[in-house]
Design goal:
With about 160 residues, the chain is mainly α. It has helices spanning about 1-5, 20-25, 40-45, 75-85, 90-100, 115-125, 125-130, 140-155; strands at about 60, 130-135. Strands 1-2 form a two-stranded parallel sheet. About 10% of the residues are buried. The model has no long low-confidence stretch (mean pLDDT about 90).
Length: about 160
């Protein structure tokens, strides 16, 4: 795979590691198709309707973010209060509106904007929601192998 990518490097406009780099690839480097996070695609679409984010027919990769409290932390009760605040429907809707992330909080959609609801319904149709693949945990051999391929590809 790496050799094929190197041989066709001229067809690749950019490689990115985060949302800022992905956004720049589309807005500044002339990329017109790419694999990126839904937030990047949805926010690009909000700024420019020429950009459209859709799930591939093969399915989407999904993961769940979480919140934690370090052991020995001070103000544990306040930390729990803050987490509980984050998990209210009102804040879930606000979070979705401002980040493009989907909220897992029940009722958050009731507080999301019409724009977010439109985008969600366009992207996450029933056939997409029934074809989600959980992001796999890294195995001890994967990260070094991945880094080797990234180095070969990005230095070509």
């Amino acid at each position: 795979v790496a050799q094929w990518i190197v041989e066709h490097r001229q067809n690749f406009g950019a490689f990115w590691n985060n949302a800022t780099e992905a956004t720049a690839a589309f807005n500044e480097a002339g990329c017109i198709i790419g694999q990126t996070w839904d937030t990047t695609g949805l926010l690009l679409n909000r700024d420019n309707g020429d950009f459209v984010y859709r799930a591939p027919r093969e399915g989407i990769i999904t993961w769940m973010d979480s919140v934690g409290i370090p052991s020995g932390a001070a103000n544990v009760d306040e930390a729990y209060a803050f987490i509980n605040f984050l998990l209210t429907p009102e804040i879930g809707g606000m979070f979705s509106n401002n980040t493009g992330y989907n909220s897992a909080v029940v009722g958050a959609a009731d507080f999301a904007s019409e724009e977010f609801a439109r985008q969600f319904n366009e992207v996450y149709r029933p056939d997409v929601l029934s074809n989600m693949w959980w992001w796999q945990a890294d195995t001890p051999f994967f990260a070094p192998l991945q880094n080797e391929f990234v180095e070969i590809i990005t230095s070509a």
